[in-house]
Specification:
The chain has 614 residues and is mainly alpha-helical. The protein has two domains: 3-237 and 279-426, no CATH class; 519-612, no CATH class. The protein has 24 helices and seven strands. The strands form two sheets. The chain has a five-stranded mixed sheet with strand order 4-3-5-7-6. Helix 15 (350-362) crosses helix 18 (417-449), helix 15 (350-362) packs antiparallel against helix 20 and helix 18 (417-449) packs antiparallel against helix 19.
Amino acid sequence: MNDLDDAVSPGMERSNGRSNGRSTGRSRSKVRLAVGAIVVFYFLVQLAGLPAFGLTDDDDFYIPAGISYSTWLGHALTLRDGAFSQAQVDAAFSINKEHPPFAKYVFGVCHFALRGLVGPFDSARVGTVLFSTVAALLLCILAIHGLGRRRGLLAGGCAVLCLLLLPRFYFHSHAATLDVPVATMYLATATLALMAERSWRAAIASGAVFGLATATKLNAPFFLLPYGVFLLLTRMPRFVSAPESATFPARLRSWFGGGTSEAPPRPDAGFVRLPRIPLTLVAMATVGPLVFWGSWPWLWWDTFARVGEYVGFHLHHYGIYFLYFGRIYSSDPYAPWHAPFVMAATTVPLAIWALLAAGVLLGRRALWGSLRASGEARLQSEGSLLLTALLHLFFTISVVAFFPGPKYGGEKLFMPAFPFICLLAGYGALRLCEAVREGARVSEERSRGLGSSLVSGLRSGLGFAWVGWVTVGVALLSSLALGLRFGAYALSSYNGLAGGLAGATALGFERQYYDVAYRDLVVWFNEHAEKGATVHFLPNNWEYVRTYRWYARGGFLRPDLRVVDHEAQASYIVITHERRFSRYSDDLLRYRATPIAFERRVDGVPLYTVLRVR
């Protein structure tokens, strides 16, 4: 029997008697325990990586903002006098007001809760780890919803492993920035929107979660683009395939009325009601803006003017340097449209791309089933999952590619794409194993038909049906190898398509960005620099002035060491090899004869060089 036959999702399962009910209850409990174990494992691995990753320049924007916002939140919850006055709200939220507050609340709360355990900045970064862990949970929920408990658990578990093995996503999961939080909230909105195909409660909840996603980062409202296409593709067949006798209002209601367990309208009935719009869209259009506004106190006064200021900042965002195929782009002109697609193609491990391709290829029947008005419900459920993932994957990258704004930071602007890549890869792993098992079964039947019991016995004894899982295991191990190869320098990772970091550097891609203040460099200075040593970074010193203050505040940097503003004051010059700065070549030329005190190379490519100048 094909595995699709037993892919019963929670919304479709039937209970036949008390014994079946007890069996279903035990099955649900086992699945919940398994999902819990997967998520806890993911969280612990993420948490273990926290001390490895250096501070980024954005950490210094969002951590202070989070501390300020959560301080106000504490005052508001305890009803402190004046907490809700415009003066106090504006004072608290004037920091980093160009971005919404939701993720920064989490950073601030984690800072105050955990600073005594892990220090002032790693405590805030735990908030990002929590967001990343929620993304892992959502992948499992999505897979189980679309594929049923057993198959969904396998696909979801593989998807979580893939997410864990994305070097760049792993890095971003440890930085107090908005990219992983918005990826998680975007994924949460997509999860509820898909569940709303069967549940009005999920439809209403999707509005609130969409509001929180919008209150995380500006990526979130673009969710409506792929979701609108999803509605068109899945509702249009109902409209087109309605009986010829159906009135035009009946066709419209058939189109817009999906998403609940109600019976479809009878085509021969009289209709006077207006066409129904999916409840999910209604919730997103009504509840969503209210949640967005309510979660951001800075908008409570002069709302329209301040929303305009917020949107205007991003419509006219200042230029940020981006090195792409050897050319430096900023605001005039922006990097070409294909840059985000190339960055995605060269930074995700090739094995994960291969699993994704297998999923799309082997799932094409289910994908087509989601576009048909009549068909197996289980195929439609599975196909809707695939269609959702493919649409959001394409649009989350395309918005960055075609938006008339700066493209920078490698993959950071399309971070919401990565969970969908992993969901499709997890599905591909499942379908690959099913295909191998089905092939082994057919081959065994043919062998028996030929009377070759020996061949049949050998195949059964060798466990040929597990070849698929071995193949998946090898793919995951190869992705793990890429992550281990770059370790704490995951932001410099490139896959084999680019030829690793060495090949990417030769192509004219960025070796690194974010002005990462690597922790091993802090350790080196602590161990080797003389008392009272001063340091200056080239070509972008001011970012390191900010991040090294956090290292000093947290006790990670010797108190006598300082990052100074001018080269002439420095006893050490650190050149971070970032070609996107136009002065980089001149800096290299000026210090070409200076002795190297220490250099960090990854994949044979220097990331930073420490020079002793006096």
